[in-house]
Amino acid sequence: MSETMNLHQIPETTALHRALWAGRIMSAFVVVALAADGMIQLFAPAQIASVLQETGFAMGLTRVVGPIILACAILYAIPATAVLGAILVTGFLGGAICAHVRIGELGSAPEIISLLLGAMTWGGLYARDARIRAILPLIH
């Protein structure tokens, strides 16, 4: 008796290949967003002065926060340090969310963007890293 493959079934290798590329794309989006934020913090802090003032952060902190964001993005982009990078990225984004909650901006655009970037950080890593899928077997 021969088994025929259903036309709607995707071979496992194709599904893994698609997941890998989806993870890379999500991860690249996170890295680009973080790099842009870090560069603005370093080289154009006046662009975000009103946001810093609203959230209670001093302008001088951009010289500290910018490199931290860039370091997180770099660590996340490198496969060998991606898990550490993901932990640091989501910690940073959690702080951003907390800052907006503290000033009464629950559900604000920056807060939602931070939440989505955090989800994409781990979703991208999950899709592109078999080690994470082994630890968190969400899909069977």
UniProtKB/TrEMBL annotation:
Instruction: List keywords of the entry alphabetically.
Output: Membrane, Transmembrane, Transmembrane helix
Q: List the GO cellular component terms.
A: membrane
What is this entry's stated membrane topology?
Multi-pass membrane protein
Q: What is its main location?
A: membrane
| Location(s) in or outside the cell | Membrane
Residue ranges crossing the lipid bilayer per the database entry: 21-44, 56-76, 83-103, 109-127
Q: Name one Pfam family in it.
A: DoxX_2
> What protein name applies here?
DoxX family protein
What species is given as this protein's source? Mesorhizobium atlanticum
